[in-house]
Design goal:
By secondary structure, the protein is mostly helical. It contains 4 helices and no strands.
Length: 131
């Protein structure tokens, strides 16, 4: 019965650790929020481009909107990398594919954290205060 609903054994026949891999359920939520956030940012950029004001004000507002989109993307990418890392460290059967995956996701995780920090800084600190 357990096999019919998707349960599986660990590598050595034992029960596997908690699986934090972002499967279809979480993946669809992540993709849905990215789609909604991207549409909202595109709409906001379009409104900023048509709004009255000088070029510098529009550029600063556009920069903040793009940084807000960067926060959305970077935060979700960091969460997915954390889920994959958690699965790789708690699995005793990662093997060669786990090593290759970790070589790909750790630099990606570092890049997403740097991007998240830059985006948060850009959103929180107005450009006029940095001049």
């Amino acid at each position: 019965m357990n096999r019919a609903i998707g349960a599986h054994d660990g590598c050595d026949g034992t029960e596997p650790a908690v699986l934090l891999w972002p499967g279809m359920f979480h993946g669809s939520q992540i993709l849905g929020s990215l789609a909604i956030g991207t549409a909202a940012c595109a709409w906001a950029l379009r409104r900023v481009a048509r709004r009255a004001g000088n070029d510098q004000q529009r550029r600063d507002r556009s920069w903040a909107i793009i940084a807000a989109w960067g926060v959305l993307v970077s935060a979700q990418l960091s969460i997915v990398v954390l889920m994959i890392h958690s699965h790789l460290t708690h699995s005793n059967c990662a093997g060669l594919m786990g090593t290759v995956t970790s070589l790909a996701i750790y630099p990606l995780g570092l890049l997403s954290l740097i991007s998240l920090a830059w985006s948060l800084f850009t959103v929180v600190v107005p450009r006029t205060a940095r001049r």
